[in-house]
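User: I'm putting together notes for a lab meeting next week and I want to include a structural view of one of the chains we've been expressing. I don't have a solved structure, so I'd like a prediction I can at least talk through. The sequence is below, exactly as it appears in our construct file.
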Amino acid sequence: MTDDRAPSAPAADGFPPTPGSLDPEALRRRALDALLTARARTATLTDSVEDGELTAQHSPLMSPLVWDLAHIGNQEEQWLLRAVGGRQALRPEIDGLYDAFEHPRSARPSLPLLAPAEARTYASDVRGRALDILEAAPLHEGGRPLERAGFAFGMIAQHEQQHDETMLITHQLRSGPAALTAPAPPDPTDAGSLPGEVLVPAGPFTMGTSAEPWALDNERPAHRREVAAFHLDTSPVTCGAYQRFMADGGYTDPRWWAPEGWDMVREHGLTAPLFWHRDAGQWLRLRFGVTEPVPDDEPVLHVSWYEADAYARWAGRRLPTESEWEKAARHDPATGRSLRYPWGDTDPTPEHANLGQRHLRPARAGAYPAGRAPSGAGQLIGDVWEWTSSDFLPYPGFVAFPYREYSDVFFGPGHKVLRGGSFAVDQVACRGTFRNWDLPVRRQIFSGFRTARDA
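Assistant: Thanks for the context. Below is the predicted structure for the 455-residue chain, given as structure tokens.
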């Protein structure tokens, strides 16, 4: 996920009225659960290592874990205590230290950051006050934009979960023995009978949302898109399929690569996805401190947009556009509606998708039959973020809310869109309309892809 920053002057309210069916007390319970779930995960990620590992920088690509911990508290203070609650600032002197735009990740270890114990105490103090504010905040339809439907509380829960994913990436980059463990995801039950691809018929569909109460600004507003017929992989591209690309000289043939991607391959000597290495004729990978054989039937992970694009070209296919991805994931031809999730409008369960760090790896291709979309495509939510061919651009009618720096400053050809979420994403920060974006060179993120072709 991209970095964020402290609030500037709020933009005009671009949100429609909250649907009348949303009960304020149900929203309050939902917000409380989302905040507590996020904080429990933050504790798992930070309590599992010694203080020295919290303050160390495990990669120049990432912040020290202790920076993320205090940043989570600082964002919560600024938005929930100050902006919603109107409280006096607790620690205004640290705002600049935890402004992600002011300090690049590589420079953060040199800052006078809060020590681990102080960061934990600060985040805990903020949380206690934030829960008091949640208990009293009016979440009704006619309330202030930040309070309406509990938006600010949902935004902060999503923010913390996004940083939890960032911290999990840091765990993957750290050296030494495993600090985290989790059971394996469920095996697929009918993978052998699944078709290799599905056909998504031509026609319009509704993209984005104007009704999801906690949707972020770049997901809005809902609008009609016309999409030509196309074929889409039923499951994400697997490690075994990707190894065939590698064995066929994929990393040595410039025909398959965008010019910038070929430059990246030559500059860094790339021969495989990040964290892979070859030993005694076998591909192995490092996964959260454990070295293991690369599983052939698991979605490939830790590939850049350039690698995904090169594979698709080699296979005689292409990456799907963002519109194609969302239509395949959300459009129900039986009703003409766009669903909240591929399986319908209900929140995810462990039977639907691999989310929330329940497992520390993607499930095998073909898993989660209950989560398949009407199109027939599966694993569109969870497992791996999926690169699309699309640049990150605003939807027609986009309005920045509640601050420009969340989305607006990233729009343009420099960032590519990823969809669907990964095993490292919590359900509060993952839905059929959720848009992620990153630089096309990024490999440390939990990214994979699936391919498409014209019908």
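A couple of points you could mention at the meeting. The CA atoms of residues 69 and 119 lie 7 Å apart. The longest helix spans residues 24-47.

User: Perfect, that's what I needed.
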